[in-house]
Amino acid sequence: MNQDQLKQAVAKAAVDYIRPKLEAYSIVGVGTGSTANFFIDYLAEIKGDFQGAVASSEATAERLKGHGIPVFDLNEVDSMAVYVDGADESNPELALIKGGGAALTREKIVAAVADEFVCIADSSKWVDCLGQFPLPVEVIPMARSYVARELLKLGGDPVYRQGVLTDNGNVILDVHNMQIDKPIELERAINSIVGVVTNGLFAERSADVLLLGGTDGVKEIR
Ligand code: 5RP
């Protein structure tokens, strides 16, 4: 199986996993990226089983609408049964690096609202220690150089993601060579730099379950 087939397998597994939890009034939070896109395509097959979705990006909203799935503004929603999204890395505690697709802030907001965060990933995303994937940090544009200097002090090598503006109108710094052996502490430290909107560590609110796709099938990891 190639990587796309593994992503499809975990996307299908996610629909099977959430389906029994859904009621006619349920809202599903939906992430961003290629794995999330496969999930949206399978989710469309059961769109009669739930009320609608909240999207973590404009791209996801467009894909959901293209399938005829109603998309709600998060402010219209009181509760969310489940949030399903991919990741760039997961460690065994299900702390994640996300934001390869620059959607980290809205992803983190939607994940915060959801009762359950289901992460879906192929086995290439599984690591013992986070940080081989450069850590994305969303930054207010005028603070870019200041935040980069502060990230250097924390031991990372920030690189400006040229030509990318987030859905919120901000820029991304990708932090290379960061040793992430204390993900929660680092998530807090980076978020406390003035000018940072948020960073791609999902450690304070890690995933509740990871559906990890490998050549031997999809494993459910808690
Ligand atoms: C987007 C994300 C994605 O979930 C992450 O980049 C994984 O993407 P893909 O499923 O395409 O491998 O965090 O901001």
Written description of the protein model:
- The chain is an alpha/beta fold and 222 residues long.
- It has six helices and 13 strands.
- A six-stranded mixed beta sheet has the order 2-1-3-6-12-13, with helices on both faces.
- A hairpin with a 2-residue loop joins strand 12 and strand 13 (217-221).
- It is globular and about 50 Å long.
- The structure holds ribulose-5-phosphate.
- The site of ribulose-5-phosphate (5RP) has 17 residues, from helix 2 and helix 4.
Give the tags.
222 residues; binds ribulose-5-phosphate; NagB/RpiA_transferase-like; ribose-5-phosphate isomerase activity; 29% helix; single chain; EC 5.3.1.6; Ribose5P_isomerase_typA_subgr; 4-stranded antiparallel sheet; 6 helices; isomerase; globular; 6-stranded mixed sheet; alpha/beta
What's a quick, concise take on this entry?
By secondary structure, the protein is of the alpha/beta class. The chain has helices spanning 3-18, 34-43, 58-66, 104-113, 144-153, 183-191, and strands at 27-30, 52-55, 80-85, 89-90, 96-97, 114-122, 135-139, 157-160, 171-176, 196-199, 201-202, 209-214, 217-221.
